[in-house]
Amino acid sequence: xxxxxxxxxxxxxxxxxxxxxxxxxxxxxxxxxxxxFTFIRFYQWAxxxxxxxxxxSELVIDRQECIDxxxxxxxxxxxxxxxxxxxxxxxxxxxxxxxxxxxxxxQIYSLVAxxxxxxxxxxxxxxxxxxxxxxxxxxxxxxxxxxxxxxxxRGEVTVNGQKxxxxxxxxxxxxxxxxxxxxxxxxxxxxxxxxxxxENSRREQLAQRIRRSATTxxxxxxxxxxxxxxxxxxxxxxxxxxxxxxxxxxxQNADLQxxxxxxxxxxxxxxxxxx
Length: 275
Known about the structure:
By secondary structure, the protein is α+β, with helices and mostly antiparallel strands. The chain is built from 8 helices and 12 strands. It is 33% helix and 25% strand.
């Protein structure tokens, strides 16, 4: 890939919920536009965390239930519906530009989805690009929930009709951000137990439906794969689809200072609530 544009690759380990969202926001709002580089970032979560879309009310989640379970709640810079990060690996792709030079969000969505499908297939997982209606939820619980894994949209990565990669996007003034999550292992239906406004019996019905709607890498592959195995597969496929060559990037002190200034924009306190 000699001669292709460079992209900066950031490999974070387990970070706090607010840092993860503030870092993606910083990349899209400041670092990518100023540097002119595309940034690809992979990261995980220090605690189980429910992320809310930027326009979602906090009332969609049972705050006390999250406190009891020691789950964090955070607001994303992007839209979309509530998603539980627990046993997953998350990513972001930030592409600088403006006007006609800015890649349309829908195009980024398709390129990333294609890259993930290729990577999954290389790992022996029969992934595909799904379409709305490819999965039928059935059951008696209303389908009008505000949960990401309870919803299928065109172009998502699926395995046998079940969602295996969630994604959300935002167009900034001089960049485009897409970030998302791939559940490696765990219970895809667990978020139902902290959903507000429904009784416990209905929460169980909702959890069962989400388990039919979404799957994990471990289930799809019939073996446990590490985050490093996923990253090793994803990066060259993203390079191919985006026509970029990645180079490692480490956060500088100035970056970390700028990210910390965005903490209150995304943090929703639960773990440190006063008694």
